[in-house]
Amino acid sequence: MARPKPETFDKQKTVAENRRARFDYAVEDKFEAGLTLQGTEVKSLRAGEASIAESYAEIRDGQAWLINANIPEFSHGNRFNHEPRRPRKLLLHRREIERLVGAVERKGMTLVPLSIYFNSTGRAKVEIGLAKGRKAQDKREYVKDRDWKRDKARILRDRG
Question: What are the record's GO terms for cellular component (predicted)?
Fold first, then answer.
């Protein structure tokens, strides 16, 4: 089965977004991965509570993991509540994992979680970006390009 194009990811409800990642990294490719979650984690996500600002993904022993993502404990959970910052397994196809391993090891790229969302079938998904880190000069150029595009659109809109 072919992987859908990044533009066709079916995002119904976005729970958490890593807005800083697009500034700090040049995202070259995006992957949609499932998450293995416990029951109280799903309930916390449905309540809209999660943070992936300081998180990252890594490949360990042939499996992909989401590290340092914060899904706070469920407020009505009992003794079976989950640990907020535990490593969570990402569900990817073997070929996708091999492709990610090759890019990370050979090209020195990074796996950055971009967002956590629920798709149309109600499954929690993570959008992972295969990215290269930007240096300070690259960040300044990125901001300059972004501002110019915004100004250009404003000028064209005003002139009709």
Answer: cytosol
